[in-house]
Write a structure and sequence with these properties.
about 75% helix, about 0% strand
């Protein structure tokens, strides 16, 4: 792989590949490998590439365009339904700190299940991981450790009465989660899907992973090894939850779901990659935010000095 990449980069740099469709494809592959591209996004790109080929088959091209347009219309209909659901929750009025990532989550789930027959599965995945994103904000950025503990206990109880022991902002959210999951379980049952119980199990497990990570961060006062960090943080990246929930909504066998939940080697490897990529991206964003905060601090500082006529002596 490294050998091929090195030679392709050299060929592009030395312009040994003449301007052509091939050159465009090589540059695209060097920028983002094929396995990292969402298949439907790549399909749209390749339609444009195929149009430029002199050997193209017009019937195949027309069918490809029609297929893409039909699926795009289906995705838009899913987003319409999801938007109505999201606005109906009114979470922004109670959880102003939480990120609104519903559309982003739907796009992510297209990378998991893009086929038209899994439309409802995509909706379930999107709702599930929209909640996961909010749980992440609560555990990671907003709640105290005690509030996190209470929320985790309430999730394990899975009972509306457990909401009475929660802080106000999590009480409202908790009830919305239970109500949404109840509808999902009912819908899956009506479709003959026997795995509705796994939706609840996976959501509870995700909150426990977040709590374990929050507790570890709060109580750990010494530097840790990479191995210890990954032992705690790998489960909270929720890659296992993506795969197992996808298994559940498409009606895979219980053996496959249970196997995935045991973190076999292939699952743990995927989770580890997901965690490391997430940490790298988070570090870059945090580093940029610190630079911005520092810039604003110095601007305010010098404005204060200027306003009150204070001379800064270095």
């Amino acid at each position: 792989m490294a050998y091929a990449k090195d030679h392709l980069e050299r060929a592009v740099e030395q312009q040994t590949i003449p301007p052509s469709i091939l050159l465009d494809q090589v540059r695209r592959a060097l920028e983002t490998p094929l396995f990292r591209r969402p298949r439907r996004v790549e399909a749209r790109h390749f339609i444009s590439v195929y149009e430029r080929m002199s050997t193209r088959n017009e019937a195949i091209l027309e069918l490809a365009k029609l297929d893409f347009s039909i699926l795009q219309a289906l995705y838009c209909e899913e987003l319409r339904a999801l938007t109505l659901w999201w606005e109906g929750l009114q979470l922004q009025d109670h959880l102003s700190f939480a990120r609104d990532r519903m559309v982003e989550m739907h796009f992510w789930m297209l990378g998991v299940l893009f086929e038209p027959q899994y439309s409802y599965g995509r909706i379930v995945l999107t709702k599930f991981f929209t909640f996961i994103s909010i749980f992440d904000d609560i555990y990671d950025s907003y709640s105290t450790l005690e509030e996190s503990r209470l929320l985790t206990m309430a999730m394990e109880r899975w009972d509306e009465q457990a909401a009475e022991h929660l802080p106000g902002y999590t009480k409202f959210f908790y009830r919305k989660v239970l109500a949404t999951m109840k509808v999902i379980e009912k819908d899956l049952d009506s479709q003959g899907n026997k795995h509705a119980d796994y939706v609840k199990k996976l959501l509870i497990d995700a909150t426990k992973c977040y709590y374990n990570e929050a507790k570890w961060c709060e109580e750990s006062d010494t530097p840790v090894t990479v191995e210890e960090h990954l032992r705690i943080s790998v489960p909270s990246c929720c890659c296992m939850h993506v795969a197992c929930l996808a298994f559940s909504v498409i009606g895979a066998g219980r053996d496959a779901i249970e196997w995935g939940m045991t973190y076999p080697k292939i699952m743990r490897a995927s989770c580890t990659i997901g965690r490391v990529i997430n940490d790298v991206a988070s570090h870059e964003v945090t580093h940029l935010q610190l630079k911005i905060y520092a810039m604003f601090y110095f601007i305010c500082f010098f404005q204060f000095m200027d306003k009150f006529g204070i001379l800064l002596v270095l």
